[in-house]
Amino acid sequence: MELTVQQLTPDFCVAPQLAPEVMTALAGAGFKSVINNRPDFEGGPDQPTSAQMQQAAEAAGLAYRHLPVQGGYQSPEEIAAMQTLLAELPKPVLAFCRSGARSTKLFAAASQL
């Protein structure tokens, strides 16, 4: 699986859907935390679940959080939750969703708070 990572700040990057097997590579690349912004089964039964992603991330030594949000709308509560995660998690952080767009939008909104 090819890994496409877009750097938004020195401490924050986004990516499209990840697979559990890339967590070791992410840790090797220097990431400390992963945020999954994708609801389970949004992409159907072939999408890895948050539990599978968390197990792989933690096995690779990464902090993992699941903050599922919809693509078209993120609530003020979800934006505030993202801001809290960004403040608490070890950096650098990689967030992912289906394409990377909603993680980018959520990061931008959380950064405005």
TrEMBL record:
Pfam families noted in UniProt: BLH_phosphatase
Residues in Beta-lactamase hydrolase-like protein phosphatase-like domain copies: 6-109
Domain of life of the organism encoding this protein: Bacteria
Keywords for the protein's UniProt record, in alphabetical order: Transferase
Source organism per UniProt: Roseateles amylovorans
Record-given protein name: TIGR01244 family sulfur transferase
Molecular function GO terms recorded: transferase activity
UniProt cross-references to InterPro entries, sorted A to Z: BLH_phosphatase-like (IPR005939), Prot-tyrosine_phosphatase-like (IPR029021)
